[in-house]
Amino acid sequence: MKFEKRCRNSFRWWVACFSGLVCLSASFVAVTAQAAVTGRCSGCHTMHYSQDGRVLTEWGQSGPYEALLTIDCLGCHMGTNVGGTTPFVFSSEAPNYGATGTTSDTNTLAGGNFYWVAQPGGDTRGHNVAGLMAGDGALSMPPGFSGDRAAADGSIPGGGSWPSGQQVTCAGTYGCHGSHAQSSLASAVRGGHHNGLDGAITAPDALPAGGFRMLVGIAGYEDADWEYRPTTSTHNQYKGVAGGTDNSTISSLCARCHGQFHSASSAGSPWLRHPVDYDMGDTAATSDYRSYGGAGVNAYRLDAPVASVDVGNVLTNVTFAGDTVVACVSCHRAHGSPNHKMMRWDYAGTIGTGCAACHTSKD
Amino acid sequence: MLLGGLLCLSIVLAPRSSLAGPYSLSAHGDSLAGVRRDVDGLASPGPYVTGNCAHCHEQHASMGGSEPQPVNSGPSPFALFAPGFVTAVKEKPYQQADLFCFYCHASPGSYQSGLLENFDYSHVFGGYAGGPTSIFEAFNQPLGGVNASYHNLYDIWSYAQKFPGFGASSPPCDACHNVHRARRNKAYPQDPAYTAISRPTEHESLWGDVDGERMTNYSGAYQAPLHFGSRTTYEPGGTSESVADGSKVPDYNTFCLDCHKEKIYSTSLRRDVVAIEWKLSGGDQLGTGDKHGANAYTVGIQMKKPYDELVMPPGGYLLSCLDCHEAHGSPSAFLVRRSVNGEILGGTLAQARDGKSWAYLCGRCHQDDYHVGGSTDINQVNRWRTVHHGGGSGANVDVPYQVQGQQGMSCGECHELSPGPQPIGCGYCHNHGSYCNGTNPGTLPNGKVIPAPIDGFRRTF
To answer: Do residue A240 and residue A124 come from a single domain?
Structure first.
């Protein structure tokens, strides 16, 4: 009872400081800037979805929830990032993104933010996730869906077919996180919150907890604060391998739903689609791509990140030897951005901005 | 070390302003006049600003879940919205879908939002109005009928495979233009800094935009031709005499010779196009260059303004390829311009070697019998007896063939005599690389045999 009272007191305090359910839930979910959630079980779970004969106001009101949770995904992951706590991916107010979402005055994370998708006309600015906003008005299924790209556990989004009008979900059959073999979102990411890894994930297994950001089978180096105000020494290091056949790359994750965009884009010349899982180190030594990050400097660019074969460490500079692999996330934010087509920068509204990070002779 | 660290940090964190590099300075990347594909979701009402990459490139061959117009059954090389070139098309007439660039550089039917017009060299730089209004039309000119010529796109594509950066999927236009750098020369015809060309062998830079890449390279041998209809202004674009020295003209000779220094088969002509030797002097002997190039006239020459100066450059004048030729297409044969040296051609220059149509071109700079003698007889126009045989009131100190009888020959041995001595077709003796001696051009199709000229050998072009 003392704990419950503390919680209620805490709730009042948080309400005084923040608005809305989101931040409130954050106060209950005892998390650190680590992949695995820590703290009291009751921070996230309730045995009976009842306390003192009622549903607590800080809980989600549509329960009971799977895995005895007190609230759904959104309940914990909606809020405003201040660094080092819960990763908030959906804000109720416009996040500060700046030009690229990477400068010291921003408050978005590596995946961006779903806020912009939820705004009027925002369909093109990110993924229209079920429960967060309405479905995409133009897209009834993921563009480029091929239905033949499996995760490490053998699961394929939608089981290989995507029903028209089905919205993408955070996890599960139609989601990005966890196993596609589970229709239950909670089951899909089972173990991920309790056993999640952080830092270098070089050999992911087929479990949600073993993958980069609970993405099954995906490798990568997890930045401790999800790229909140990243620097060249503190950022995600994405996995990328030239050739397009390695299913642990970050781009292979995207290909599970957008497989056609991944085809004819990882081999051959000339490209039919923009390449991903292609190492710019495979270009001629004199090519303009070799000036990525500045000629002779070749600094890792936070605004146009490149992936690497080795994700054991975070790179501050690139050498064009397996560490300049173009990835989907080199250009796009996975969750959403203020820009058309969820681009990292304002591609549509400018002439070549962002593109010139790699296509340096076009600068 | 700290300074280095700060420098690196600033590179990464500094806000990147709008581009000021080659692409945004190019015609296609121009924020006002650049590429703007008029397709739903793109230019109207789409969000992509003018000059944006998306107007030509589709990174995923999909927008909003489907392929935008023009639909070409999926992705195309270089992530372009259509294939670069349909190599099965060996000759004109071209269709818009045969060449990626034609999708926009056509009028009418352009995918470019607003009016896009591209006129020929005679119009833009020579000042002669009219002509084709688009690149597509320039290649497909019907007015000259069988004599209309064009730079065969398949031949360009085929030959350009040898150049770095050019491949099987490249549009042939890429051989001469770097589409990410080519500038709007048509809007600034007097300023070669806005050149639209890049040498096939130096494709990553523009050609003609800086000193050292202009016709002033030829040691004062270049004189810009007159602007159309003017006696006081010059190409390109009507510049003043003070800059008619080639300083405003890209060195088109070096540019064109990247390809045309070699013999190239022409699918259109069904024969080889001769290799051009433009930079050698040496006089009248085998192995020397064309006289319109660095080689000199023989002794004397009768020219029109502005080539009628009493004191000519040592070795004579040297022309630019574009002084006589169009780059894309022409109503005349051999890509000969509609207007040359400020005047319209007297008629269509035909492919056939016989007849005098080739002299429609010659007569723009060289004096015919009408001019050389100060004649008022209109019948002397496009008549070339004086330059070949002397006579009249002009100074003819290097005629190749003396007047009747002086070489022990009669007119009829070379000329058809009915009705009266007929001219010999210009094309038998005058073309790139041509010369006359005892065997060249030798026996003509009509059985007449052309003897060796005075002194036995003449370079005749």
So the answer is: yes
